[in-house]
Amino acid sequence: MAKTDPYAALRIKEFNIFLLVRFVLVFGWSMQFIVIEWEVYSLTKDPLSLGVIGLMEIIPAFTMALFAGHIVDQKEKRNLLALCIAAFSLISLGLFLLTWDKVTGNWETKTILYSIYALVFFGGFLRSFFGPTIFSLVALIVPKKVYPNAATWNSSTWQMASVLGPAFGGFFIGWIGVHWSLCIIFGLVLLSFIILLQIKRKPILNPKIGEPVIESLKEGVRFVFKTKAILGAMTLDMVAVLFGGAIALLPVFAQDILKVGSEGFGVLRAAPAVGAFLTMLVTAYIPISKNAGMKLLVAIFGFGVSIIVFGLSSVFWISVLALFFSGVTDGVSMVIRQTILQIKTPDHMRGRVSSVNSMFVGSSNELGAFESGVTAKLMGTVTAVVFGGTMTLITVVTTGIVSPTFRKLDLTKDLEEHNKD
């Protein structure tokens, strides 16, 4: 039944609670990022200050990733996530206070700015724990035979929240201002904490509790690099994100190339997310575990083609369609990648494997934006986007040629084995 039931994972009560927690968290986190970007630029009027925000977050997130994975594998997951959310609430509260005139009325602008950067840095530290903890917890909530369906709904929830969060962040800034927008975010974080407590504590499945940190980290990295399915999925995702970062250059396309203004920019920004979300819903009905390796290669190849078409287009509706299809292909690849990671990763190593994945992929978002900015400066905007898409195509073709094992990857047998358990 789990093979064909598009709502298999949703029939599990705790998984629905988990999805609600994740939606509220991602919605709040992404909304907070937009609000803080607005506030920082309002304080400085310096575009470089926006780059510093990303730098302040990625440095601790990247450097702490492996250690965070070790901790996650050693601890009970529900309570660890609750602790992370509680710490996140302190960040939200701090930002709320930093935008309150009664608190910072006599502060210098630099003091407020550096205080915001400090809280963003702390948020990056937390980010290194959030990913591995959530990845590990969901595997303890749903049975293995439902992993592909759970990956679809989990990714769809993330996608929806990451789209709606920034949108509402922009609306709330105009409606009630930065300060009270941050108050709403603080309330959302507290709400996610309360909802999370409805999930029961889970057993710790790691047989090596107390294992030395260095040995634990080595084991996690060795596992990723010797498991070709996981390494291939991570590498393809990293390259697609790193070189396909057209999103970072959308303001340039909207203002100078397509000349569609802020409204057109909003449509362009939403197009990939709409495509990804709709595709994820479709994958709930159409299983994609059969020939997963080839499907992933085709999806990322399609992503690269879409980016090239977008870069070459000077017609608004063609650009929108290209970005929409980039989202469609990215949605397929996201579900397949999450399914590969869930199925191929042993329970006792989920934290470490997820941490390595975050180093591959999570950091690529910021590096991809940086790469797009540098190549646009050196080559020109259109050439930079076409170059990124071309590099994605080259990587996909190379992977397909040099790794026939990955090309022939089929998750059907793995799922059948899980169904027998």
UniProtKB/TrEMBL annotation:
Keywords: Cell membrane, Membrane, Transmembrane, Transmembrane helix, Transport. Its main location: membrane. This is MFS transporter. The chain crosses the membrane at residues 15-36, 48-68, 80-100, 112-141, 153-173, 179-199, 229-254, 266-286, 298-325, 378-402. InterPro entries: MFS_trans_sf (IPR036259), TM_effector (IPR010290). Pfam families: MFS_3. The keyword Transmembrane helix applies. It is a multi-pass membrane protein. It is found in: Cell membrane.
